[in-house]
Amino acid sequence: MNRLLESFCRYVRVDTMAVEGSTTYPSSPGQLVLGRMLADELQAMGAQ
């Protein structure tokens, strides 16, 4: 499987559905998980 497809498959496995009525942003734990995943990958590529 190519790298882009592998990354996409990892991302779509994370439940990022918003929590209705939440007063926080992001509104669900999954949104935080995905954000951390993306941040870690960007840092690994040299982003600051």
Provide the low-confidence segments as ranges.
Answer: none
Largest sheet: none
Structural Rg: 13 Å
Strand content: under 5%
Level of helix content? 40-55%
Number of strands: 0
The N- to C-terminal Cα distance equals 28 Å
Structural class: mainly alpha
Describe what this molecule looks like in 3D.
There is one protein chain. The chain has 2 helices and no strands. It has one domain. The mean pLDDT is 95. It has helices at residues 3-12, 29-44. It is an all-alpha fold. It is flat and about 40 Å long.
Write the layout of secondary structure elements.
Elements: H1 3-12, H2 29-44
Short description:
The chain is 54% helix and 0% strand.
Keywords:
48 residues, mainly alpha, 2 helices, 54% helix, 0% strand
